[in-house]
C-alpha cells in the first residue's frame, strides 16, 4: 500500500490514536451487547469479547480493565439507546404510559431487561465495586418516575390523593415484578398484565390512603 514506507506502519498522530481507542471502545461495547443477547450474564467474558471482536485480549483490557467495567459501559450505552425515544412519553402521556412504553420495547427486545435483572444481584451485593453506581442508576430511575407523577398530578392526569414518592415505588415494583414474571413464564402476556395491574393501582390512588390493620 502507498501509505507504507519500506514495509513499516507509519506512526499515528495523537488524533488517530484517540480515534482508534474510541473505535475499539465502541467495538467492545457493541460486541458485548451482541453477546448478551444470546448468552447468560456470566458467560460473557473479556476473552469472549476479544475473540468475537477480532481483537487481542490486551487490546480489550486497554479499554476495559475488568469485565465489570465493560458491563457498566454496555448498560449505559444500551439503556440510553433504548430510553431516548421513550423519555418524552413521561411528560406527554404520564408515568404509567412511560413505563408501559418500556415494557413494550422490552417485549420486542428482551435482552437488556435480562441483563438489568442479572445486575440487580450485583447492585445488592455488599462491597461489590459496581454496586454504588448501579444503585445510583436505580435511584435515578425512581426519581424520574416520581417527577413524572408530580407532573401528572399537576396537570390532573393522576389524583392528588396519590403521594408521588409512594406511587413511584408501587408503579416500578409492578413494572419490574411483571417483567421478571414474564421472563420466567414465557407465554405470559406482560402488556395485558401491566394494563390490568395499572388499572387497579390507579383506582386505588383515587382514594384517600387508609393505614392497614393486619389481623395476626
TrEMBL record:
Source domain of life is Bacteria
Q: Name one Pfam family in it.
A: TetR_C_6
Q: Which InterPro entries match?
A: BetI_C (IPR039538), Homeodomain-like_sf (IPR009057), Tet_transcr_reg_TetR-rel_C_sf (IPR036271)
Domain BetI-type transcriptional repressor C-terminal stretches: 96-189
Name the UniProt record assigns to this protein: BetI-type transcriptional repressor C-terminal domain-containing protein
Q: What species does this protein belong to?
A: Amnibacterium soli
